[in-house]
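Let us work through a complete example step by step.
Step 1: write down the sequence.
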Amino acid sequence: MTSSAAPASDGPVEGLTEEQLLAAGSRSDAVFIEAGPGTGKTSVSAHRFAAHRFDPAGDPSRAVVAVSFTRAATSTLKRRVQRLWGPAALTPPHRIVTLDTLIGDLLHDLLRDGIIEWPNGHTELDVHDSWSTFSGSTFNRTAYRVSLAGNRVEVEQGWVRKARAAIPATEIVPRLLSGISTHDDVRVVLEAAIKVDEFAAYVRDRLCQRLRALIVDEVFDANDLDLAIIEMVMEAGIATTFVGDPWQALYVFRGARPEAVRELVVRRSVRVVPLTQSFRWTTDEQRSLAEELRAGRPGVIPALAAAEVSGCDAVLALNWKPLWELSESVLPFAFQSFRGTHEEAAATLVLSHVTRMVFGADSTYLREALTSLAITDDQVLPSLRPAMQVIMDVLSTAHAKAPVEAYKLLREALRGVSPRALRKPHHAYTGRLRLIQQRLVGSAQLIPGLTTHQAKGQEWDLVGFRLSEEQVRILAGGLDPTKEDHRKLYVGATRARAATRILH
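Step 2: predict the structure and record it as tokens.
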């Protein structure tokens, strides 16, 4: 990857490099924009959107749609489009949404037109992110299954061999029958539907009627259903743009299949337009590191003692636990991958208040925490801030009993806004608050801690990277983009503008 001075202008077209202009304005019906770190992916996606949106030859009744896989990513692209091109760029039917929204629209079309039938004849579903909105996990053996039999959606309740922590199927099945579902259930039904030729033809026709162009951001996060829908869009003759970087595909745990994206590009003869000029690197050291890693050559990153972590602008790791263990100067944005217990959710609200006060940003799993606590009113969170500040003040003292007192205050604060009741104080529940306390009393200058998943798309001047000995050996041996852990290491090592340092 070569370096170049950043574009001089922030205007709609001025300041784009030649390769960015070629990518944004390509006349090909199928384009894959391969965009490495710092190459202006969001700007090019925004310009690509506008090129289709304001094309005078475009059918005004059909939409230009851009999709990504998270609300945060779609919000970022939406803001960029509106800043560059104004509100008119997103007047209906044109929009920027999550792929889940597009998939939900297709299922609703199938239901409304009677192509398939939901139990009890529902044609409008109330779709939620998670069943945690309605119930907490318990240790149970119940399970449920949603399937398609002919043109009818069937919901079955059953059992698994061993009990595990899960939301009881007895809480889920009645809601499914009443027209309530999650995005996962919607995906299961649509995936089954498009395997039937008749239903697939209907979906393809609906896509053709509604869309004139589709832009898929972070395409390497796509799973099999996502890719099937994307290929149907292409089969319908709709202009399709993929944007992404195979080196930054991190969501295999969600079913993403980076190799399948490459197969689709080859199978459909998609034109590949690379973005190679990175505007992120401000030093030869960091530029060289990025180039060596992307070439598969050994990456040498200087070490920094944990005692010197205060010089970093951010600290990254592949998982949350090493961040909490590294130093009390590091404040991670989550305790762990969210498991959904009410006590964890409540502590996450406190952590989010602290990260907002210290860094100006919410904790990673705030949305999941609110869902787990069945808090759906947007005004609840602002109303909790005074109580959260009191809890933060209590945790800012070095008193040994502060976490217990803070937990009691937290139970009381949530009693009036959440139907979930927190269990009585126990070290398993107060321990998270103790971790926060250690940060508030132990450091005058806190440093944000994130996993590589959460750091993707962000950048800082000096980044500390907390790695195990095995991870250091992998870096030293050269990275392979077909291996998930190698991609995580690549993302973490390319977040810095000036320098990356391994923390021991």
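Step 3: interpret the result. The first strand starts at residue 2 and ends at 3.
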